[in-house]
Amino acid sequence: MLIDYFGDVQTAWQATPGELAAMGLDKRSITSLATTKETIDLDSELRQLNDQAVTVLTWEDEAYPPLLRNIPDPPFILYVRGELLPRDQWGLAVVGTRSASIYGKEVTRNLVSGLAASGVTIISGMALGIDTQAHRSALDVGGRTIAVLGSGVDIMYPAQNHRLGQTIIENGALVSEFALGTKPESGNFPRRNRIISGLSLGVVIVEGAEQSGARITIDCALEQGREAFAVPGNILARGSSGPNKLIQRGTAKLVTSIGDILEELNLTMIEHQVEAKAIIPDTPIEAAILEQLSAEPLHVDDLRLHTDLSSAELSSTLTMMELKGQVRQVGGMNYVLARETQVRYIVD
Prior knowledge:
Blueprint: H1 2-6, H2 9-13, H3 17-22, H4 27-39, H5 42-51, E1 54-58, H6 66-69, E2 77-82, E3 91-95, H7 102-117, E4 121-124, H8 130-140, E5 145-148, H9 162-170, E6 172-176, H10 188-198, E7 202-205, H11 213-223, E8 227-230, H12 241-248, E9 253-254, H13 258-264, E10 267-269, H14 284-292, E11 298-299, H15 300-307, H16 311-323, E12 327-329, E13 334-337, E14 345-347
Parallel strand pairs: 3-4, 3-7, 4-5, 5-6, 7-8, 8-9
Antiparallel strand pairs: 1-2, 2-6, 10-14, 11-13, 12-13
Helix pairs in contact: 7-8, 10-11
Protein backbone atom coordinates (compact mmCIF):
# COMPACT_ATOMS: atom_id res chain seq x y z
CA MET A 1 0.00 0.00 0.00
CA LEU A 2 2.84 2.37 0.85
CA ILE A 3 4.65 1.67 -2.40
CA ASP A 4 1.48 2.04 -4.45
CA TYR A 5 0.86 5.44 -2.85
CA PHE A 6 4.38 6.87 -2.78
CA GLY A 7 5.73 5.18 -5.90
CA ASP A 8 8.88 3.58 -4.48
CA VAL A 9 10.33 2.15 -1.29
CA GLN A 10 12.72 5.01 -0.53
CA THR A 11 10.00 7.68 -0.69
CA ALA A 12 7.70 5.53 1.45
CA TRP A 13 10.45 4.97 4.03
CA GLN A 14 11.18 8.68 4.29
CA ALA A 15 7.52 9.74 4.52
CA THR A 16 6.56 11.87 7.53
CA PRO A 17 3.81 10.84 10.01
CA GLY A 18 1.59 13.50 8.45
CA GLU A 19 2.10 12.08 4.96
CA LEU A 20 1.40 8.58 6.23
CA ALA A 21 -1.82 9.75 7.87
CA ALA A 22 -2.86 11.55 4.70
CA MET A 23 -2.61 8.31 2.73
CA GLY A 24 -4.93 6.58 5.22
CA LEU A 25 -2.51 4.67 7.45
CA ASP A 26 -3.88 4.17 10.97
CA LYS A 27 -2.15 5.56 14.08
CA ARG A 28 -0.95 2.16 15.28
CA SER A 29 0.79 1.43 11.96
CA ILE A 30 2.31 4.92 11.86
CA THR A 31 3.72 4.47 15.37
CA SER A 32 5.03 0.99 14.53
CA LEU A 33 6.77 2.24 11.40
CA ALA A 34 8.28 5.20 13.26
CA THR A 35 9.63 2.88 15.97
CA THR A 36 11.12 0.58 13.37
CA LYS A 37 12.85 3.48 11.60
CA GLU A 38 14.40 4.57 14.89
CA THR A 39 15.65 1.13 15.91
CA ILE A 40 16.79 -0.43 12.64
CA ASP A 41 20.17 0.28 11.08
CA LEU A 42 19.85 -0.31 7.35
CA ASP A 43 23.61 -0.32 6.75
CA SER A 44 24.04 -2.93 9.49
CA GLU A 45 21.27 -5.05 7.98
CA LEU A 46 22.98 -4.95 4.59
CA ARG A 47 26.31 -5.90 6.13
CA GLN A 48 24.73 -8.93 7.82
CA LEU A 49 23.20 -10.02 4.54
CA ASN A 50 26.50 -9.66 2.73
CA ASP A 51 28.47 -11.41 5.47
CA GLN A 52 26.18 -14.44 5.28
CA ALA A 53 25.90 -14.40 1.47
CA VAL A 54 22.15 -13.85 1.59
CA THR A 55 20.40 -12.53 -1.50
CA VAL A 56 17.26 -10.42 -1.08
CA LEU A 57 14.60 -10.53 -3.79
CA THR A 58 11.48 -8.38 -4.07
CA TRP A 59 8.56 -8.44 -6.49
CA GLU A 60 10.46 -5.99 -8.69
CA ASP A 61 13.46 -8.30 -9.22
CA GLU A 62 13.62 -10.35 -12.41
CA ALA A 63 15.01 -13.25 -10.40
CA TYR A 64 11.90 -13.40 -8.20
CA PRO A 65 10.28 -16.81 -8.91
CA PRO A 66 7.50 -16.27 -11.47
CA LEU A 67 5.29 -19.03 -10.07
CA LEU A 68 5.42 -17.49 -6.61
CA ARG A 69 4.76 -13.99 -7.92
CA ASN A 70 1.40 -15.18 -9.29
CA ILE A 71 -0.12 -16.55 -6.06
CA PRO A 72 -2.81 -14.46 -4.30
CA ASP A 73 -0.52 -13.30 -1.46
CA PRO A 74 3.14 -13.57 -2.54
CA PRO A 75 5.77 -12.48 -0.03
CA PHE A 76 7.10 -9.03 -0.86
CA ILE A 77 10.60 -10.08 0.21
CA LEU A 78 12.45 -13.36 -0.17
CA TYR A 79 15.72 -14.03 1.64
CA VAL A 80 17.79 -16.63 -0.23
CA ARG A 81 20.90 -18.55 0.80
CA GLY A 82 22.16 -20.46 -2.18
CA GLU A 83 20.80 -19.82 -5.65
CA LEU A 84 17.43 -19.93 -7.37
CA LEU A 85 17.71 -20.90 -11.05
CA PRO A 86 15.27 -20.61 -13.97
CA ARG A 87 15.05 -24.42 -14.09
CA ASP A 88 13.52 -24.37 -10.60
CA GLN A 89 10.20 -23.39 -12.16
CA TRP A 90 9.94 -27.12 -12.88
CA GLY A 91 9.59 -27.77 -9.18
CA LEU A 92 7.48 -30.18 -7.18
CA ALA A 93 6.79 -29.94 -3.45
CA VAL A 94 6.95 -33.13 -1.38
CA VAL A 95 5.57 -32.87 2.16
CA GLY A 96 4.39 -35.10 4.96
CA THR A 97 4.49 -36.01 8.61
CA ARG A 98 7.45 -35.59 10.92
CA SER A 99 6.71 -39.09 12.29
CA ALA A 100 7.34 -40.86 9.00
CA SER A 101 7.00 -44.63 8.74
CA ILE A 102 9.42 -46.89 6.90
CA TYR A 103 6.84 -47.11 4.11
CA GLY A 104 6.55 -43.33 3.91
CA LYS A 105 10.31 -42.81 3.75
CA GLU A 106 10.73 -45.50 1.09
CA VAL A 107 7.95 -44.10 -1.08
CA THR A 108 9.46 -40.64 -0.75
CA ARG A 109 12.91 -41.91 -1.66
CA ASN A 110 11.61 -43.78 -4.72
CA LEU A 111 9.52 -40.91 -6.07
CA VAL A 112 12.00 -38.13 -5.34
CA SER A 113 15.04 -40.04 -6.63
CA GLY A 114 13.44 -40.51 -10.03
CA LEU A 115 12.05 -36.98 -10.25
CA ALA A 116 15.24 -35.25 -9.09
CA ALA A 117 17.47 -37.35 -11.33
CA SER A 118 15.26 -36.32 -14.23
CA GLY A 119 15.66 -32.62 -13.55
CA VAL A 120 12.70 -31.78 -11.32
CA THR A 121 13.59 -29.48 -8.42
CA ILE A 122 12.29 -30.86 -5.12
CA ILE A 123 10.81 -28.34 -2.69
CA SER A 124 10.01 -28.97 0.97
CA GLY A 125 10.25 -27.48 4.45
CA MET A 126 13.33 -29.20 5.97
CA ALA A 127 11.26 -30.58 8.86
CA LEU A 128 12.08 -34.01 10.23
CA GLY A 129 10.43 -37.03 8.62
CA ILE A 130 9.14 -36.82 5.05
CA ASP A 131 10.61 -33.35 4.38
CA THR A 132 14.10 -34.45 5.37
CA GLN A 133 13.82 -37.64 3.31
CA ALA A 134 12.70 -35.63 0.27
CA HIS A 135 15.66 -33.23 0.46
CA ARG A 136 18.18 -36.01 1.06
CA SER A 137 16.82 -38.20 -1.74
CA ALA A 138 17.15 -35.33 -4.21
CA LEU A 139 20.70 -34.63 -3.09
CA ASP A 140 21.65 -38.33 -3.23
CA VAL A 141 21.04 -38.42 -7.00
CA GLY A 142 22.72 -35.07 -7.66
CA GLY A 143 19.45 -33.17 -8.00
CA ARG A 144 18.40 -29.71 -6.89
CA THR A 145 16.30 -29.01 -3.83
CA ILE A 146 14.86 -25.92 -2.11
CA ALA A 147 13.98 -25.69 1.58
CA VAL A 148 11.46 -23.06 2.66
CA LEU A 149 11.97 -22.13 6.31
CA GLY A 150 9.69 -20.83 9.04
CA SER A 151 12.63 -18.86 10.44
CA GLY A 152 15.35 -16.61 9.12
CA VAL A 153 17.66 -18.33 6.64
CA ASP A 154 20.49 -17.90 9.15
CA ILE A 155 18.76 -20.25 11.60
CA MET A 156 18.85 -23.95 10.75
CA TYR A 157 15.73 -25.59 12.13
CA PRO A 158 15.52 -28.25 13.36
CA ALA A 159 19.09 -28.26 14.71
CA GLN A 160 19.55 -31.90 13.62
CA ASN A 161 19.35 -30.73 10.02
CA HIS A 162 22.16 -28.18 10.20
CA ARG A 163 24.46 -30.22 7.94
CA LEU A 164 21.57 -30.94 5.57
CA GLY A 165 20.86 -27.22 5.35
CA GLN A 166 24.46 -26.48 4.41
CA THR A 167 24.32 -29.10 1.66
CA ILE A 168 21.06 -27.65 0.34
CA ILE A 169 22.71 -24.22 0.06
CA GLU A 170 25.36 -25.78 -2.20
CA ASN A 171 22.81 -27.62 -4.37
CA GLY A 172 19.79 -25.34 -4.33
CA ALA A 173 18.65 -22.78 -1.79
CA LEU A 174 17.26 -22.01 1.63
CA VAL A 175 14.37 -19.55 1.26
CA SER A 176 12.34 -17.51 3.74
CA GLU A 177 10.22 -14.39 3.89
CA PHE A 178 11.36 -13.82 7.48
CA ALA A 179 14.25 -11.50 8.30
CA LEU A 180 17.58 -12.72 9.61
CA GLY A 181 17.41 -13.72 13.25
CA THR A 182 13.71 -14.64 13.17
CA LYS A 183 13.09 -17.62 15.44
CA PRO A 184 11.08 -20.64 14.22
CA GLU A 185 7.84 -19.75 16.02
CA SER A 186 4.76 -21.91 15.45
CA GLY A 187 2.80 -19.13 13.77
CA ASN A 188 5.43 -18.84 11.04
CA PHE A 189 4.92 -22.30 9.58
CA PRO A 190 1.39 -21.97 8.11
CA ARG A 191 2.60 -18.84 6.28
CA ARG A 192 5.71 -20.73 5.17
CA ASN A 193 3.54 -23.46 3.63
CA ARG A 194 1.98 -21.14 1.03
CA ILE A 195 5.51 -20.43 -0.26
CA ILE A 196 6.31 -24.15 -0.53
CA SER A 197 3.26 -24.66 -2.75
CA GLY A 198 3.69 -21.30 -4.48
CA LEU A 199 7.15 -22.24 -5.75
CA SER A 200 5.83 -25.54 -7.13
CA LEU A 201 3.82 -26.86 -10.05
CA GLY A 202 2.16 -29.25 -7.62
CA VAL A 203 2.35 -30.74 -4.13
CA VAL A 204 2.68 -34.40 -3.17
CA ILE A 205 1.63 -35.45 0.33
CA VAL A 206 3.10 -38.80 1.36
CA GLU A 207 1.92 -39.20 4.96
CA GLY A 208 0.11 -36.95 7.41
CA ALA A 209 -2.93 -36.65 9.63
CA GLU A 210 -6.10 -34.98 8.36
CA GLN A 211 -5.21 -31.86 10.36
CA SER A 212 -1.52 -31.27 9.78
CA GLY A 213 0.98 -28.87 8.29
CA ALA A 214 1.21 -31.05 5.18
CA ARG A 215 -2.55 -30.77 4.74
CA ILE A 216 -2.29 -26.98 5.04
CA THR A 217 0.25 -27.03 2.19
CA ILE A 218 -2.17 -29.05 0.05
CA ASP A 219 -4.94 -26.54 0.80
CA CYS A 220 -2.59 -23.71 -0.21
CA ALA A 221 -1.80 -25.50 -3.47
CA LEU A 222 -5.49 -25.86 -4.31
CA GLU A 223 -6.15 -22.19 -3.54
CA GLN A 224 -3.25 -21.26 -5.82
CA GLY A 225 -4.52 -23.43 -8.67
CA ARG A 226 -1.69 -25.96 -8.35
CA GLU A 227 -1.98 -29.72 -8.67
CA ALA A 228 -2.45 -31.84 -5.55
CA PHE A 229 -1.19 -35.42 -5.32
CA ALA A 230 -1.43 -37.99 -2.54
CA VAL A 231 0.27 -41.33 -1.92
CA PRO A 232 -2.19 -43.92 -0.57
CA GLY A 233 -1.29 -45.63 2.67
CA ASN A 234 -2.33 -48.28 5.15
CA ILE A 235 -5.95 -47.59 6.17
CA LEU A 236 -5.11 -48.64 9.73
CA ALA A 237 -2.23 -46.18 10.04
CA ARG A 238 -3.08 -42.78 11.51
CA GLY A 239 -0.38 -41.17 9.39
CA SER A 240 -2.16 -42.25 6.20
CA SER A 241 -5.52 -40.69 7.05
CA GLY A 242 -4.66 -37.36 5.41
CA PRO A 243 -3.63 -38.67 1.97
CA ASN A 244 -6.33 -41.36 1.94
CA LYS A 245 -9.11 -38.85 2.67
CA LEU A 246 -7.83 -36.48 -0.02
CA ILE A 247 -7.92 -39.31 -2.54
CA GLN A 248 -11.36 -40.50 -1.37
CA ARG A 249 -12.84 -37.02 -1.78
CA GLY A 250 -11.23 -36.49 -5.15
CA THR A 251 -9.27 -33.52 -3.81
CA ALA A 252 -5.87 -35.01 -4.66
CA LYS A 253 -4.83 -37.38 -7.42
CA LEU A 254 -3.61 -40.82 -6.41
CA VAL A 255 0.09 -41.40 -6.98
CA THR A 256 1.67 -44.82 -7.45
CA SER A 257 4.59 -43.85 -9.68
CA ILE A 258 6.53 -40.94 -11.14
CA GLY A 259 4.49 -41.27 -14.31
CA ASP A 260 1.28 -40.31 -12.50
CA ILE A 261 2.85 -36.97 -11.58
CA LEU A 262 4.58 -36.18 -14.87
CA GLU A 263 1.47 -36.97 -16.91
CA GLU A 264 -0.72 -34.71 -14.80
CA LEU A 265 1.80 -31.87 -15.02
CA ASN A 266 1.83 -32.15 -18.82
CA LEU A 267 5.39 -33.33 -19.00
CA THR A 268 6.13 -35.79 -21.79
CA MET A 269 7.82 -38.93 -20.54
CA ILE A 270 10.64 -40.56 -22.45
CA GLU A 271 11.44 -44.22 -22.24
CA HIS A 272 13.39 -45.37 -19.23
CA GLN A 273 16.93 -44.23 -19.85
CA VAL A 274 18.45 -46.22 -17.03
CA GLU A 275 17.09 -49.70 -16.62
CA ALA A 276 17.21 -51.54 -13.36
CA LYS A 277 20.38 -53.55 -13.30
CA ALA A 278 20.04 -57.17 -12.31
CA ILE A 279 21.63 -57.95 -8.97
CA ILE A 280 23.85 -60.99 -9.40
CA PRO A 281 24.65 -62.92 -6.22
CA ASP A 282 28.24 -63.97 -5.57
CA THR A 283 27.40 -66.81 -3.19
CA PRO A 284 24.50 -69.21 -2.51
CA ILE A 285 23.77 -67.32 0.72
CA GLU A 286 23.41 -64.05 -1.18
CA ALA A 287 21.14 -65.80 -3.67
CA ALA A 288 18.93 -67.05 -0.85
CA ILE A 289 18.67 -63.54 0.61
CA LEU A 290 17.95 -61.86 -2.75
CA GLU A 291 15.18 -64.34 -3.45
CA GLN A 292 13.30 -63.07 -0.39
CA LEU A 293 13.86 -59.33 -0.77
CA SER A 294 11.87 -56.84 -2.84
CA ALA A 295 10.91 -53.17 -2.61
CA GLU A 296 8.75 -54.06 0.40
CA PRO A 297 10.74 -53.82 3.67
CA LEU A 298 11.42 -57.19 5.29
CA HIS A 299 12.60 -57.48 8.88
CA VAL A 300 15.84 -59.34 9.52
CA ASP A 301 14.04 -61.85 11.78
CA ASP A 302 11.60 -62.74 8.99
CA LEU A 303 14.48 -62.93 6.55
CA ARG A 304 16.28 -65.37 8.84
CA LEU A 305 13.18 -67.58 9.09
CA HIS A 306 12.65 -67.64 5.32
CA THR A 307 16.30 -68.37 4.49
CA ASP A 308 17.03 -70.73 7.38
CA LEU A 309 20.37 -68.97 7.89
CA SER A 310 22.05 -68.44 11.22
CA SER A 311 22.05 -64.95 12.72
CA ALA A 312 25.81 -64.68 12.20
CA GLU A 313 25.66 -65.76 8.54
CA LEU A 314 22.78 -63.42 7.81
CA SER A 315 24.30 -60.42 9.57
CA SER A 316 27.72 -60.70 7.94
CA THR A 317 26.27 -61.34 4.47
CA LEU A 318 23.83 -58.42 4.69
CA THR A 319 26.68 -56.14 5.72
CA MET A 320 28.71 -57.16 2.66
CA MET A 321 25.67 -56.82 0.39
CA GLU A 322 25.06 -53.30 1.68
CA LEU A 323 28.66 -52.38 0.92
CA LYS A 324 28.23 -53.73 -2.62
CA GLY A 325 25.03 -51.72 -3.08
CA GLN A 326 22.81 -54.77 -3.45
CA VAL A 327 20.52 -54.19 -0.46
CA ARG A 328 19.64 -51.30 1.82
CA GLN A 329 18.61 -51.14 5.44
CA VAL A 330 15.64 -48.77 5.74
CA GLY A 331 15.42 -48.56 9.53
CA GLY A 332 14.40 -50.89 12.32
CA MET A 333 16.50 -53.73 10.86
CA ASN A 334 14.29 -53.85 7.75
CA TYR A 335 15.86 -54.48 4.35
CA VAL A 336 14.91 -53.87 0.71
CA LEU A 337 16.55 -54.47 -2.65
CA ALA A 338 18.73 -51.56 -3.76
CA ARG A 339 17.40 -51.42 -7.29
CA GLU A 340 16.33 -48.23 -9.07
CA THR A 341 15.08 -47.02 -12.43
CA GLN A 342 15.25 -43.52 -13.76
CA VAL A 343 12.75 -41.66 -15.94
CA ARG A 344 13.71 -38.62 -18.00
CA TYR A 345 11.27 -36.15 -19.46
CA ILE A 346 10.93 -33.16 -21.73
CA VAL A 347 8.53 -30.26 -21.53
CA ASP A 348 5.68 -30.17 -24.02
